[in-house]
UniProtKB/TrEMBL annotation:
Molecular function GO labels: GTP binding
InterPro entries: G_AIG1, GIMA/IAN/Toc, P-loop_NTPase
Protein name, UniProt field: AIG1-type G domain-containing protein
Domain AIG1-type G: 4-205
Source organism of the structure: Oryzias latipes
């Protein structure tokens, strides 16, 4: 039996999907800001649940109707770097999808394009995590999947028919977290205990590019400050001349 000693999870998905709330549910602690506060930077929190160590990474959400070509390169690079928050790599990507709104074809395309940034092999480590389960009432998640149409069924199939549902209002129900961890263990067995690993050469290039951008920005600020100081001296000189006159 393959049981992951340290479970490393990265939550990804659109804005307002319930990623931060789900991360808190998993850790059984309010460690991540949620609600009206949008996540702007990825953040990793470690914890222990049921005697198991967890490392949970919450990430900024993407705009569900935005094509990848319209997403700034900076944001694409940050998305790729999310996996480096929990080295050597996540045991699972939890693709967070809310059930209180329809999963459209546009959202399908956005998900597919973002997953391409991680590589085709990322799907082997991915699971759909449905949120706001209380919205379904008496309806089962399987009934919801079937009623949603082809786009959502495509996503489930890409994730190897792996999915789980959270009722984020029922945070004291520890069974929904333990069941999630059981499914992750099963996925780990199917992956021979391996975790997702990004090509280190790609990460190195991204970091180098970020450093170059930061260096150019620093140089631009330096030149702007020099110009400001020259203008200030000029104004002070003009003022002194008028005073003497």
């Amino acid at each position: 039996m393959c049981t992951v000693t340290l479970v490393r999870l990265v939550l990804i998905g659109g804005r307002w999907a319930g990623k931060s709330s789900s991360a808190n549910t998993i850790l059984r602690q309010k460690k991540f800001d949620f609600g009206r506060i949008r996540t702007h930077q990825s953040k990793m929190i470690e914890g222990e649940v049921g005697g198991r160590k967890l490392a949970v990474v919450d990430t900024p959400g993407w705009r569900s109707s935005l094509c990848l070509s319209d997403v700034p390169q900076r944001d694409q690079q940050r998305f790729r770097l999310n996996v480096s928050k929990c080295p050597p790599g996540p045991n699972a990507f939890l693709l967070v999808i809310p059930v209180d709104s329809a999963f459209s074809v546009e959202q399908k395309i956005t998900v597919e394009e973002h997953m391409k940034l991680l590589g085709e092999h990322a799907w082997r480590f991915s699971m759909v995590l449905f949120t706001f389960g209380d919205f379904l009432g008496e309806k089962t998640i399987e009934e919801h999947i079937e009623s949603e149409g082809l786009a959502l069924r495509w996503l489930i199939e890409k994730c190897g028919n792996r999915y789980h549902m959270f009722n984020n209002k029922d945070k004291d129900n520890s069974s929904q977290v333990s069941l999630l961890l059981e499914k992750i263990d099963e996925m780990a067995r199917n992956n021979s205990g391996r975790c997702y690993e990004v090509d280190q050469r790609i990460l190195k290039k991204i970091r180098q590019k970020q450093e170059e951008v930061a260096s150019r920005a620093k140089e631009r600020r330096r030149k702007a400050e020099e110009k400001r100081q020259r203008m200030l001296k000029f104004i002070q000189g003009e003022h002194s001349s008028k005073t003497v006159y």
